[in-house]
Amino acid sequence: MGSSALHAIGFIFGILFNFYATIVAVRFVMQMVRADYYNPLAQAVVKLTDPLLIPLRRFIPSIKKYDTASLVLVFAVLFLKLLVFKLLSLGPVPAIGFPVLVEQLPVLKLVLLALLDVIHQFFNVFIFALIIGAILSWIPGAAGNPVQGLVSSIGEPVLRPLRKLIPPLGGFDLTVFFTIISLFAVRIFLIGTLRQLFGL
């Protein structure tokens, strides 16, 4: 099979693995922020993740309020993504925000890369929630939308600390803008520092 076909397959696989890892990460965050599980979108997340999470929870119990099984599943999905790309030689794998060549990486470095990818996914959950919430705030009648309800539950705990520091300017709430910028900056610094530390 030609390299172009392999890269096309890798593109599809990368999207599917990352999409499911993000959904599982959302499930973890939903529990952390005590989101409304009766929300239709939250119910969809539950239905998509329960088939793997329910059996996993038999072996991995929660620690206090932390759904440890969800964390393990996010890592497992992202590690499997890296392993599939390595074994099938599918080209660069979308991980930690950009394409990474993993064919020559040993398994230990795949584990470390998967851990960084987990961190990246959780930053994405909060960043996307804030961006989607900001877009919906400009749409009339979106207040009762299930998407708005869920992203508000996820984004509000991140916005709350900055709202105490940044007052509205001229009637405009710039908290969301500065929070998104801050999350991007922290993610770049954290992932970059850990990459250097792990030699990736």
Write the layout of secondary structure elements.
Blueprint: H1 3-33, H2 40-57, H3 68-88, E1 93-95, E2 98-100, H4 107-137, H5 146-163, H6 175-198
Antiparallel strand pairs: 1-2
Helix pairs in contact: 1-2, 1-3, 1-4, 2-3, 3-4, 4-5, 4-6, 5-6
Question: Which descriptors would you attach to this protein?
Answer:
6 helices, globular, mainly alpha, single chain, two-stranded antiparallel ribbon, 2 strands, 200 residues
Describe this structure in words.
The chain is mostly helical and 200 residues long. The chain contains 6 helices and 2 strands. The protein has helices at residues 3-33, 40-57, 68-88, 107-137, 146-163, 175-198, and strands spanning 93-95, 98-100. Strands 1-2 form a two-stranded antiparallel ribbon. α2 packs across α3 (68-88) and α5 (146-163) packs across α6 (175-198). The two termini are 29 Å apart. The mean pLDDT is 86.
